[in-house]
Amino acid sequence: MELIWIPIAVFAALMQAVRTAGQKTLNASMSTMGTTYVRSAVGLPIMICYLAGVLLYTGGGAPEFTWRYLGHAGAGALSQVLATALLIQMFRLRNFAIGTMLTKSDLILTALIGTAFFSEKLSGRGWLALLVVLGGMVIMLAGKFVSLGHNVSGGRSEHSAGHVGAATKRGMAAGGFSKLLFSRTTLIASACALMFSFSFLFLREAILDLGDRPALWRAAWTVVVATGMQAVGLGLWLWVTERRVFSQIWPNRRVIGFIGLTSALGSIGWYTAFALENASYVRAVGQVEAVFTLLLSWAYFKERITRLEFTGIAITVVGVVMFRLL
Q1: Whole-prediction pTM
Q2: What percentage of the chain has pLDDT greater than the value 90?
């Protein structure tokens, strides 16, 4: 049972992949901060119901809300809001597909920052597994780059690229990889990865602050507390600066409901995995989200997956399996 965190993290990654697709759709009719807000506001009631179920199962009542716990939860919640906003901002950029892949650098950032400044403790085998997963991600990124360049030079229909888009292809053809490294997309993606890393680490610390109580109890309370902070804080901000967002919720209720449900399920999965294992290991296993994204692109958008991308998928899966050997 000590490895139960692995399938939980895989499930959370799947929910995050489909939620991101929903947010991309919603962002066409709602602002970046509005799209960020609905994931927490609509997901929160589901999380509260989950917490009630956990309390019935484990008991334990409410935790002691110390300033240390609230500080860690608040820092994690704020970092997650900023990371999500930056991710959604990339939807409007030319190189969204590449930018999304670049955000996966949160894997190595979480490990490095976590071991230096937080309570992360990684074994030698753990570092090896992390590097294998990172290698798979880099190969998938290279495969995506090659695929986009081939689509442009080969004259394939731009409509067949689905979520990648014609502008992305033109940018890839005109700029090249070296130009991409210094592009606005790369800067936003790097900031997004850094904020995600901080969110994972702070939320993991908040969960640890609750002591040795059952993992389900610690995770359930923290997901509700952190998401509640996001919903209230961002809701007040939008009420002052962008009130029209609230009138856009009902017309978009179906996609918002989908985002709220998948976000709640994904967050519950992430927090539970963080309660059971290091944030670095959890995020490494969570990189299968990129695999799910490629497979969704193939199944839904009818995109071709290159041999290089298949190689990256295989290496990433191997890295994930290595965590069973730690």
Answers
A1: 0.83
A2: 47
* The pLDDT of residue 30 is above 70: yes
What's at 180, amino acid-wise? L
**Token duo for residue 154:** 């080969």
* Contacts of 253 by beta carbon, 8 Å cutoff, 6+ apart: none
Residues 6+ apart with CB under 8 A from 53: none
Interhelix angle 184-209/106-117, rounded to 10 degrees, is 40
d(CA 54, CA 63): 13
- What residues does each domain of the chain span? 5-325
Summarize the confidence of residues 173-179 as an average pLDDT. Answer: 52
Cα–Cα distances in angstroms (integers) from residue 314 to residues 14, 104, 289, 309, in the given order? 17, 17, 13, 9
For the chain, the straight-line distance linking the first and the last C-alpha, in angstroms and rounded, comes to 14
9 vs 129: CA distance, rounded Å = 15
Distance between CA 34 and CA 53 in Å, rounded? 30
